Amino acid sequence: MKVLIIQLARLGDNYQVWPVVKSFKRNNPDVELHYLCRSSFRGAITGLDEVDRLWELSSADHVDHVLNCSDEKLTDKMERQIQDLKTEKYDQVVNLTFSPLSSYLTEAISNEDTKVLGYTRHEDGYLDIPDDASALFFGQLGVGKFNRIHITRLFSAVMGVDLLEEDWQVPGSILAKGALRFPNLPENYLAIHIGGSTNNKLLSAKQWSAILDSVHKHNKDLSFVLLGSQKERDLASAITIQNPERLLNLAGDTEVDDLFHIIKHSRLLIAPDSSLVHISSLLNKQCINLSFASVNFWETGPLAQNSYVLWNKSPLHFDTDSAMSAINSILSNEPVQVRHAKVKENSSLEAYELIGYDDRDFEWNLIKAIYLGHEFPILDDLDVYQAFKQLAELTDMAIRDLEMVRSGQFQNMNLEIISNVEKLVETLEKLVPQVRPIIWWFNTEKIRVGPWSDQKVFDRNFDIYTQLRTLLAIYVGTSFTHSQIVEQK
What value does the mean pLDDT take over residues 195-200? Predict the structure, then answer.
């Protein structure tokens, strides 16, 4: 059996695939496993010995060509790469990029008999979401949404594997490279990643200086090793502390492989949302993740034991005092007094425990009920009840008309009813956040309808509306007491 995994996203996404690859190979030792990534991120596959063959998209231009769906003719080199991959005749292709645009490449590589997981394309060019885990990803993941399943767990769900502790392992060979290049690191230090993939994840030199000065004041024996890319050299040079000999600036001086050794031998890692957070997870090294609203930390935060997430809206709104308090408490093994999220022990679904937050988790519990078979959450909001009720009434009308078409009473569907349902769905999605998980599920299932025969398309749409009505029936019968209604007003 020959399997290809496609991951065309950034460095951190490739590291999050590591445990999944290890688990898949552990469960399927005889599989010939190939891996396709961008050439600029091939370093993230170094040390992943379970991969039998690494393929690269040869330049950023080629990746942009695929991801932007250019109508221009493919370059000869790109065409040859696709043809070479197609000639492999993969039994299975798994697209873990979760970009609708990357699905074009997945479809081009696949043959008629290839089993495809993750986004691909139908024969008419429309998006094809073949598996339920990918449908959850499409409908419920991302910034501003309510999912709390870590992306690594979703990768494993797509590939149908369970992750064990042994799947988070880093080979000694990759650690040895860093040890050879940096044999004289401080004896007791924190690894500090000052970089980030985008500017909305970067703290200023002033903010970092305040944090490190506070930590040094409470931990005189600690040193700090600054990590970052070439573009963060100036930022690193601007960070100062009262005891400068305790500051080792390695920004721009490290290779990707070096980071494993440096992080492993640190007391812990402090980092924004970046690939280093995922390296700390592979090493099971405690991490303090300084996270912002530009990402959903539930999906991309640290997974190492005793790790923390300190969340702020943006670097401009960063609460330096709270961060200093939390970091000093963590280093002293004392309870953290400020708001934070902490990695749960032995959690396979929700990675974090929220402490100090007003946790309104109705939407998340609704996702668990829809996709995972959990109990539906209790509804105690009149506005949400009314939204469900309106949607149920129109869905009943749509189902009635669909049944009349099926019985031959209508020659064609009454598209006005269907259109009204869709307009109401769009309105409710904007006005009532609590109903969005059901709406996003509904919209995703409609997208999953393929270019099939008219009868099969009709039957699938009928099933989707029926399933929608079944979901809504959980709440449409909810009764409110007089006191609840008065309280809502």
Answer: 76
Q: Which residue has the tokens 């009720």?
A: 389
Q: How far is the C-alpha of 332 from the C-alpha of 343, rounded, in Å?
A: 18
- Residue 480: band (very low, low, confident or very high) from pLDDT cuts 50, 70, 90: very low
Q: Is the pLDDT assigned to residue 173 strictly greater than 50?
A: yes
For tokens 């270019």, name the residue: 451
Spatial distance between the Cα atoms of 290 and 309, rounded to a whole number of angstroms: 6
Alpha helices, DSSP H only, in 141-230? 151-159, 172-181, 205-218
Query: What single letter denotes the amino acid at residue 106?
Result: T
Residue 96 corresponds to which tokens in the numbers above?
A: 């873990």
- CA-nearest of 354, 343, 291, 342 to 318 is 291
Look-up of token digits 């961060």: 323
Confidence band, pLDDT 50/70/90 cuts, at residue 464: very high
Helices marked H in 297-434: 297-300, 320-331, 362-372, 382-407, 415-431
Distance CA 54, CA 4 (A): 10
Name the amino acid, one letter, at 292.
Answer: F
Query: For residues 329 and 44, what is the distance between their CA atoms, to the nearest angstrom?
Result: 33
Strand partners, 450: none
Give start-end residues of each CATH 3.40.50.2000 domain in the chain: 2-164, 172-359
Average pLDDT, the chain: 90
Pairing verdict, β 340-343 and 308-312 = antiparallel
Whole-angstrom CA distances from 253 to 11, 232, 233, 285 are: 18, 11, 9, 22
- The CATH fold of domain 2-164: Rossmann fold (3.40.50)
Q: Which two tokens stand for residue 214?
A: 């506070």
